[in-house]
């Protein structure tokens, strides 16, 4: 039995490194700018200075144990709305500063957790989850048909929603 487990562990490591290598290769070919940029790893461009979690499970764990709210951004690389929101989000100094108070996760795929799609699976959508691991369905954007969608012009609303997620947290704990 001992031998078998070491083999599976080795296979897992190989799989992980292949996936990483594939990803790194893709990024290099696209980014031909000469100025040195920080490697765009988990941030995917939403804030390269910020600390991003890798998986939804890790994000939930960190939110619970750090007692910080979690902000999840669902987006897609080939969606112009996602790209537009990402640009203003990354360039908004106050948002980037405030984001340090959150556990952060951006996803280019859907999780199996239905709570993260209260009104459907669309991008971009931003959801807040408090440390008790409750999705804050009360913190919404401007649109009644897509409650958690934000456009670049809604960036100040997103900022105030981030403040709201932090404020309510203090009163409840």
Word description of this protein:
With 173 residues, this protein is mainly alpha-helical. The chain has a domain at 56-166: Glutaredoxin (3-Layer(aba) Sandwich). It has helices spanning 2-30, 56-66, 80-91, 93-99, 155-172, and strands spanning 70-74, 103-107, 125-129. A three-stranded mixed β-sheet has the order 2-1-3, covered by helices on one side. The longest helix is centred in the N-terminal third of the chain and has 29 residues, at 2-30. The model is unreliable at 14-33 (pLDDT under 50).
Q: What's the order of the H and E elements?
A: HHEHHEEH
Largest sheet composition = 3 strands, mixed
CATH topology of the domain at 56-166: Glutaredoxin
Overall radius of gyration: 18 Å
Number of helices: 5
- DSSP strand tally: 3
In short:
Its main location: endoplasmic reticulum. This protein is mainly alpha-helical and 173 residues long.
What does the secondary structure layout of this molecule look like, with pairings?
Blueprint: H1 2-30, H2 56-66, E1 70-74, H3 80-91, H4 93-99, E2 103-107, E3 125-129, H5 155-172
Parallel strand pairs: 1-2
Antiparallel strand pairs: 1-3
Signal peptide: 1-21
Protein name: AGR2 protein
Family: Belongs to the AGR family.
């Amino acid at each position: 039995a001992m031998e078998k487990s070491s083999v599976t562990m080795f296979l897992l490591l190989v799989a992980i490194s292949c996936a990483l290598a594939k990803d790194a290769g893709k990024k290099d070919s696209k980014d031909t700018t000469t100025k040195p940029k920080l490697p765009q790893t988990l941030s995917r461009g939403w804030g390269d200075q910020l600390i991003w979690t890798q998986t939804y499970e890790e994000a939930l764990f960190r939110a619970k144990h750090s007692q910080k709210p979690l902000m999840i951004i669902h987006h897609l690389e080939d969606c112009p709305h996602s790209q537009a929101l990402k640009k203003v989000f990354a360039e908004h100094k106050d948002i980037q500063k405030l984001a340090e108070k959150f556990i952060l996760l951006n996803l280019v795929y859907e999780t199996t957790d239905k709570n993260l799609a209260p009104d459907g699976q669309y991008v971009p959508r931003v959801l807040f989850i408090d440390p008790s691991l409750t999705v804050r369905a009360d913190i919404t954007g401007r649109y009644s048909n897509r409650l958690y969608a934000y456009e670049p012009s809604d960036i100040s609303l997103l900022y105030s929603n981030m403040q709201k997620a932090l404020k309510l947290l203090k009163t409840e704990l």
